[in-house]
Write a structure and sequence with these properties.
This protein has one helix at about 25-45. About 30% of the residues lie in helices and about 0% in strands. It has 1 helix and no strands. The chain has about 60 residues and is mainly α. It is elongated.
Length: about 60
């Protein structure tokens, strides 16, 4: 089975896209991942703190016997 890929006309301008203003190679991505990991370990637990549990009795101020 032969699959033929047909090119479709491009939309928009035909000018080349400028490169991003930062490095995006594999080494840079590994460096970013390592930095993010170290920063996350310094911050500690990401889960929100659980609320403090309080005991609530059924008695009201006028029900004390």
């Amino acid at each position: 089975m032969i699959i033929e890929r047909r090119s479709q006309p491009r939309r928009g301008s035909s000018a080349p896209t400028p490169p991003p203003g930062y490095r995006h190679d594999s080494e840079r991505l590994r460096q970013l991942a390592a930095n993010w990991r170290e920063a996350a370990l310094e911050l500690g637990e990401f889960a929100p703190q659980r609320p403090t549990l309080r005991l609530i009795s059924e008695t009201t101020a006028g029900d004390e016997d």
